[in-house]
User: What shape does this take?
Amino acid sequence: MSFFRVITPNFNNREWLNKCIGSVLNQTFKDYDFIFIDDCSTDGSLDTAGELIRDDGLAIGYRTKVWNGGARNKGLLCHDDAKYTLFLDSDDWFHDNKVFQDLHDFIVDHDYPDCIRLPYNVEYDGDKSVNVMLDDNTIEKLVRSNFCACWSKCVKSELIPPFPENTLMEDAVQHIKQCDLIHSLEVFTDRPVYTHNRNNGNSCSIEKNHDLQNSKWKSSMYRYMADLLDLELEHDYCEAERKRRSEKCLADIKKGLYIQ
Assistant: This one.
């Protein structure tokens, strides 16, 4: 059983793979599995990833034909005996090569919490950067957070629910269910764990690609609403968040409000 499992979905991010994959393979703490899921890239990503991980017995590369949540779900089926799971987008990277070691020590020192909230660094406009501390220190606060990216949490592998597929809103729905399953939470405060790259001009999440966002967002909003309605939740605070997001989603659909 490995301590960490790192899941990286990829589509046409060859330009960033050296930095992304290198940030995993260069970790000083080696008790991990690295799972790279390529979603039928057309830019040679899989070949590049193969060259980078070929000589590393801890890394596994897969080629698949899915989108967003589906790639992560495929990763969740691999090495599911790892104690904790981290998600890493293929155009992002871990902040430094001691992240795994320090995160491991933090987890042991805090009696193996179900979930650890991870601060991160944002890089944008070339060489600009800013640190973001995610300090939600209770599960009730965490579920209400507007920032719910799966890479902002380290979670016990046995407690990770699957992601909705074929939607831009997979993180938000999975986040609510995730919070419903965990019972203990800690916040890693030493330094940023993750670098979120806003310099990738091909990402649909950046402002200049609103047309690309909107082409997918319209159908995603309806799927998002259906996924929210399908959630089965135990805790009142999670049910309250599901209701809040459902009401906002319905209002946005009625207004025709997508990405502005």
User: Anything to note?
Assistant: The mean pLDDT is 87. The chain is about 40% helix and 20% strand. The two ends are 46 Å apart (CA to CA). The first strand starts at residue 4 and ends at 10.
